[in-house]
Amino acid sequence: MRRRWVGAAGAVVAAGAVAAGVVGIGGTAAAQPQLPPVSPEDLVASVMTAQPGPFNGTVGIDNELGLPALPGAPQLGNGSQSARIWSGGDGKGRVALPSGEGEKTLVSDGTTRWAYDATERTATRSTGGAPEQKDPQSDPAGAATQMIGELRRTSQVAVDGTAEVAGRPAYQLVLTPQASERTLLREVRVAVDAEKRIPLQLTVLATGSATPALQVGFDDVTFGPQDPSLFTFTPPPGITVKDAPAREGRPDDRQGPPPGTRTVGDGWDRVIVAQRPAQQPGQEQQRPEGAPDLNALGSPVSGPWGSGRLISTAVGTAIVTDDGRFAAGAVPEQVLTEALAR
């Protein structure tokens, strides 16, 4: 229930590749290194086929979306967050997510994934292939690569000089929405490692703003073999171990859009329309303790699709309808209402 509630409350920044995967990267750039010229097409192609091998690093998020802190998803709320990640290749990885009261740890050996919450003393196990939608905090390079692949067809792509990021020389790849795209975003800038060709930094800028609305990525990164023991997990004594429920129609428990979710449009003006968690007749919708009430967020709005609440941030909007739906994207309100009416 907590995961599903957070999905509804944070829908405005979880709308497909644009609202969920489009993020920026913290850190400052040093003097521009001298690198061989590369065309935008060749740079994009090299990113899509990059095989960086094992690495570890520190990931930082700087969030100025204007959302309150949400239980289970602190990266959606305003402020700075950090995480430590290790990648062993072949789907093996480890992520340490510090929190105010403890730490959450995500571990995958390539087949089985564990999510351990030291505060709640629980460990959740899931199996199957790698997640379809990359998490920007636990896999910033993968999330940025996925975003480039989904946006390049509806973008003007350019290389705008070089930078030093996380101590490594990088090319600055810039994606700008084509004139036909109805989006609140102005551009996305991706710092691509000159040697490994994986994204090190990705900065998103909203129309009318000179400062990034959301930033996430490597503060430091080191490539090379990792300790194999990092990618195994043994539940500590005395904790509750449970299996993550497989989604209907997805017996391998792969992550992806839940049943009832549909996508309207593509590229920059993509909208995700989904159903909010079901509740028993006559019962009030439950939410995690301390979480904001969805019915109190935003402002009233109505149209041919019905009525609900409009929630706006620097890079996106969401409509939570009174009949249990929500629509979200990095788009103006009009695009959401058209999607709901379909």
Automatic annotation (TrEMBL):
Bias (Basic and acidic residues): 244-255
Region described as Disordered: 121-143, 230-309
Extent of Low complexity compositional bias: 275-292
Entry keywords, A to Z: Lipoprotein
UniProt protein name: Outer membrane lipoprotein carrier protein LolA
